[in-house]
Amino acid sequence: MLERDVRLVLVGERSGHVKAPSAGGTEAARWFLRHLQALPLLLLIGGAALDYYTPPRFSAEAFYTAAPMSAAALLSLRATILSGIGAIAADFALLVHFGFIGDASGWSELTTVATVSAFAVVVNRLMHYRNVRLESAREVALAVQRAVLPHPPTSIGPLRIAVRYQSAAKEAQIGGDLYGVQDTPYGVRCLVGDVRGKGMGAVKAVDVALGVFREAAEEEPTLAGIAARLEKGLVREASRRAGLERTEGFVTGVLAEIPPSGDELRLFNRGHPPPLVLRPTGEVRSVEPSVPALPLCLSELGPGDGVTDTVPFPPGSCLLLYTDGLTEAKDRSGAFYDPVAALTGHVFPGPDDLLDTLLAGVGHHTGGRITDDMALLAIARGGRSAKT
């Protein structure tokens, strides 16, 4: 059972109804939960008052049974037991007051309240053990996340680096989005990609892609060579899958290289959203590939393996790589988030500020309803910068 929970925590469901609350939504939820914890007491008081001030034949049994059951879901074991005792005591007192304690109907009502109160204690314990198991699964998932997607160094030479991984599901720690940064003899190389699908198969593909990237980045003199190694490794990994994951699985990805000189940026795109280059003037350029290429694992479907594009990367510039969870984030009207429009005119002190602002902007645009994971990688070259 723990393995199943780990899978749920690792991957989550990428469905449209899954919500990732924004900061404002989280505060509202906490406020609501705090006040909701008073519900069992309100049910007891309201039930007793209703029972006392209504005709004798009217029963508030529903209120007495609802109080311990709500306490089981919201409060501790002790509070659940006290709520059950309170419900039994209130019902008994009102039955005595109206003279029904000797009737069969009165004893039947009191027995029902006592039975539900006892069952509420069982429910409270079951929920507690489930939460303990889920917390254990989260800890395992966090360890897997750190192993598969370790944080890159915050700086390499004059380059400053920041990453963010935003999950669509609250429980999710890692899905099919990936990133990697490697300091190599050819310069700083990085990869951002997105594995089609979900489940443990996607996590395995992420692990394979990053393992191949780390090795190939040190050995291959060109980005095209790294992409070829990634293609080979991912095709081999996909051959071990079954069903549609074997025949229709693919990975979009973009490779970037900042040579030791640092004056230019090389990009190799395999069906991935175009990187953004932020200039120190506030200009934002979307770098579309000069020759479009199919995603990794699909090269046999068409000619052309892509080309390496080179763009200027002067001091003060920042490279932003991201997965399609960013550009496919929608507001209530269905409009997609546009990072180019959102970032144009702003120059950020560093990559962390850029990513924090970006995530805040996406949260505001969607109202906190994130429907797909986002992997974000920003690399800023040291130089003149200004705050927004």
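the 2nd protein, sequnce then structure:
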Amino acid sequence: MHAITIPEPGGPEALVWAEVPDPVPGEGEVLVEVTASAVNRADILQRQGFYDPPPGSSPYPGLECSGRIAEVGPGVSGWSVGDEVCALLAGGGYAEKVAVPAGQLLPLPKGIDLGQAAALPEVVCTVWSNVFMVAHLRPGETLLVHGGSSGIGTMAIQLAKAVGAKVVVTAGTREKLDRCAELGADVQVNYRDQDFVEEVRAATDGAGADVILDNMGAKYLDRNVRALAVNGRLAIIGMQGGIKAELNIATLLSKRAAVSATSLRARPLGEKASIVAAVREHVWPLLGSGQVRPIVDRALPMSDAAAAHRVVEESGHIGKVLLVTP
């Protein structure tokens, strides 16, 4: 098969479409013929040499894919050759084939085509596990989403609105904020010229956000804590704004607030399977009814993954950038 390899870490040009050995499904795995994958920030970090795959996983980038099952490995039940699926991966999505633990498979949602389904697994599992399983967002509460026009952000808006929450988003352009509004965001904050702490307070009669989904890390830590409501929950899922910051414990204590930080890629298989099962139970019906949908900015040939990485690094996209196999 062919896959995107990284002979040496570097810029987008480090991504090389090359012939590699076919993967073989092991115990509890299936082999998926990949229709599409999607670009995530973790892929860029891996390309740059900063985020190695977990031990034993595929060396190729790609944390999600869609496609058809080509082979069912030993010990797998409930799945058959030819099934159309999408999957959460520890790596290997930028390839024509990938071996996937059966617990990380999801059936193709009703009304979603096979290519677009590649935009779902990583963002849905990230949002559901952090916003709902960890931070326990409830109807009537307020969610602040940083990077509202990203793949994560566009999904977080839709899922929060589906459960009856109020949504505040940040983004850097009017176009991005308008798209967030179309998806249901109640309040749109341009982080370039507005203070999101003040805007959140204004939107909540001074109370603050009950849950914050943050992709920035260090840069926003102090302001995120100040933006929290009493009993608020800050869920950190990224470090685009750095890795070290001071935390005012007195402010955190005064609000009886909580800070959590999670990632999906290195979690044990059992934890990933539990998240995938919860997503299938709670989110798949929303996709099937059309209440929630994947937001795709564009699809590019997988062999031209370098161009897709440039698009994501320039942050001009809205939603997901897909990679489609030949």
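The first helix runs from residue 41 to 48. The CA atoms of residues 62 and 91 lie 5 Å apart.
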